[in-house]
């Protein structure tokens, strides 16, 4: 790979990073929103280095050929992956491959639920409240949760799901709530589910179990701008 080619690859890679972070919100499919400044900075650096490399190569003496390792062409792989494939946010397939249940703070503290007929909660907060001891229980309260639908593998029911990430999609875990009382929407469709928590039959379990919600309404919604919790 010549110096000009190396510079061109870096230039294209930097421009791609900038296009998904500075000029769109595509980056939230891969990392948390807080990483945007870092991505913009990295993209800008790659563009500058790429331009300098191209110019430097053009100014070399005629007949002077400088080549880098062929493996450098691998830098083009993420460019093609983002531009040509454009992987979407993680969905039902990734949820089924999730490594395990989320880490729960069983002794975490929560404020009392806000007043009103329906309380909107994230899946993470809803699950945490069902396990917290002591703390304000969601029992008897009507809540509204937003996520995507994942049919149970055994065909018995479905789960409202949201992926939780610490930094990026590579470390994602699936947050799931079993939905009862309504038919399953299409797989991967985003919905808002309104209903009430089904309390634990024998008290808070020692091992993790997926909380269940008795649904009264399911409404289709657009995918949130930030798909991960």
Please identify the top-level CATH class of the largest domain.
Mainly Beta
Class per helix and strand makeup: alpha/beta
CATH topology of the largest domain: OB fold (Dihydrolipoamide Acetyltransferase, E2P)
* Name of the CATH architecture of the largest domain: Beta Barrel
For the secondary structure, the number of strands is 6
Evaluate the radius of gyration.
Answer: 24 Å
Mean pLDDT level: 84
Low-confidence stretches: none
* Tally of helical segments: 5
Name the overall outline: elongated
Level of helix content? 25-40%
Major sheet strand order: 2-3-4-6-5
Task: List SSEs in N-to-C order.
Answer: HHHHEHEEEEE
Give the strand content: 15-25%
Walk me through the structure.
With about 230 residues, this protein is an alpha/beta fold. The protein folds into two domains: about 5-85, no CATH class; about 95-220, OB fold (Dihydrolipoamide Acetyltransferase, E2P) (Beta Barrel), CATH 2.40.50. About 30% of the residues lie in helices and about 20% in strands. The chain contains five helices and six strands; from the N terminus they run ααααβαβββββ. It has a five-stranded mixed barrel with strand order 2-3-4-6-5. Strand 1, helix 5 (about 125-130) and strand 2 (about 140-150) form a beta-alpha-beta unit. The two termini are about 40 Å apart. The model has no long low-confidence stretch (mean pLDDT about 85).
Brief overview:
This protein is an alpha/beta fold. The protein folds into 2 domains: 3-87, no CATH class; 95-220, OB fold (Dihydrolipoamide Acetyltransferase, E2P), CATH 2.40.50.
